[in-house]
């Protein structure tokens, strides 16, 4: 029998009238898809999200070329924010589990994209960017993303904490969080078992971080049951795209007020 897929009430990105000020090109590099949109100065999306499949075994060079072609039809922006599916330090790739760390390690992604797009570029881990778009900025907020890989980020009063690679940390039965909850695991175990595992992960994360709120994003968040614990919400990928604005802005601790970093 086919399992009915539930649609949780996703927290959606509010659509706004375009604001004056700097525009940000937001790019999300995923293991399966590459997405981009242009944001106004408050993070409102000025264009529909454009998307192409991530080329298989995508090398850094091919990635830069593919991204340049993807964003070419979009309106001009003043700066570029990029979410990358791995560890990134000061714009340089450290790991890229789903793209291939061997090919990517040490690649200066921010510099290469600055050259290709002719604008200042900031790069951060994809789940950190998604989290910046999803959180409220109060208390301990944890974000996980369920897609090809498993992304995670932690915030306290809106400030991003040190990036933890929860994906590759032991979870259950000798397997990591990503091995139990990533796309491959979903395909192998089926939706019912996968959902049970997500609930076990929620419990583990509650014990580990005593979060005030947990947000679950990524393409597979839509497969979660509609009824989630009170302190857990599913968030849309579009909301994650809006996180790109926060690479250039900061929250005042404990509030959602923002100010430009530059
Ligand atoms: C990577 C993380 C990334 C996640 C989602 C994992 O395999 O190690 O850094 O955030 O996938 O793309």
Please, could you describe this protein's structure?
The chain is an alpha/beta fold and 262 residues long. It is 27% helix and 26% strand. It has 8 helices and 16 strands. Strands 3-2-1-4-7 form a 5-stranded mixed sheet. Strands 10-9-8-13-14 form a 5-stranded mixed sheet, sandwiched between helices. Strands 5-6 form a two-stranded antiparallel sheet. A hairpin with a 2-residue loop joins strand 11 and strand 12. Helix 1 (60-71) runs parallel beside helix 3. The model is unreliable at 1-9 (pLDDT under 50).
Question: What topology emerges from the helices and strands here?
Answer:
Elements (H helix, E strand, L loop, with lengths): L23 E6 L3 E7 L10 E4 L6 H12 L7 E6 L3 E2 L2 E2 L7 H4 L4 H9 L3 E5 H9 L5 E7 L3 E7 L2 E2 L9 E3 L2 E2 H5 L1 H7 L1 H19 L3 E5 L14 E3 L2 H5 L7 E3 L6 E3 L2
Parallel strand pairs: 1-4, 4-7, 8-13, 13-14
Antiparallel strand pairs: 1-2, 2-3, 5-6, 8-9, 9-10, 11-12, 15-16
Helix pairs in contact: 1-3, 6-7
Bound molecules: beta-D-glucopyranose.
Number of domains: 2
Our count of helices gives 8
Beta fraction: 25-35%
Q: How much helical structure, as a percent, in the residues?
A: 25-40%
CATH architecture of the largest domain: 2-Layer Sandwich
Bound heterogens, unique: beta-D-glucopyranose
SSE pattern: EEEHEEEHHEHEEEEEHHHEEHEE
Q: Which sheet architecture does the biggest sheet show? A: 5 strands, mixed
Q: Say how many strands there are.
A: 16
SS-based class: alpha/beta
CATH homology superfamily of the largest domain: ATPase, nucleotide binding domain
- At the first level of CATH, the class of the largest domain is Alpha Beta
Catalogue the unreliable spans. Answer: 1-9
Q: Quick check: average pLDDT?
A: 90
Shape: globular
Report, as a whole number of angstroms, the end-to-end distance: 56 Å
CATH topology of the largest domain: Nucleotidyltransferase, domain 5
Order the strands across the largest sheet as they lie in space.
3-2-1-4-7
- Spatial extent as radius of gyration: 18 Å
């Amino acid at each position: 029998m086919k399992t009915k897929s539930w649609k949780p009430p996703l927290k959606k990105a509010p659509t706004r009238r375009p604001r004056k000020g700097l525009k940000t090109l937001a790019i999300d590099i995923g293991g399966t898809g590459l997405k981009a949109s242009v944001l106004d100065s408050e993070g409102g999306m000025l264009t529909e999200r454009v998307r192409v499949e991530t080329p298989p075994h995508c090398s850094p060079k091919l990635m830069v070329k593919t991204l340049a072609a993807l964003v070419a039809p979009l309106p001009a922006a003043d700066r570029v924010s990029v979410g990358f599916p791995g560890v990134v330090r000061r714009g340089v790739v450290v790991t890229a589990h789903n793209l291939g760390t061997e090919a990517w390690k040490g690649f200066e992604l921010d510099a290469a994209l600055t050259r290709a797009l002719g604008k200042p570029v900031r790069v951060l881990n994809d789940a950190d960017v998604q989290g910046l778009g999803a959180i409220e900025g109060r208390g301990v907020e944890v974000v996980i993303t369920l897609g090809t890989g498993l992304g995670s980020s932690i915030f306290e009063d809106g400030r991003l904490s040190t990036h933890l690679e929860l994906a590759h940390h032991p979870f259950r039965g000798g397997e990591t969080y990503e091995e139990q909850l990533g796309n491959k695991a979903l395909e192998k175990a089926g939706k019912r078992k996968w959902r049970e595992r997500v609930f076990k992960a929620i419990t583990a994360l509650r014990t580990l971080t005593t979060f005030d709120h947990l947000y679950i994003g990524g393409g597979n968040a839509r497969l979660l049951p509609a009824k989630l614990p009170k302190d857990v919400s599913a968030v849309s990928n579009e909301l994650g795209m809006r996180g790109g604005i926060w690479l250039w802005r900061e929250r005042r601790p404990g509030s959602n007020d923002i100010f430009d970093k530059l």
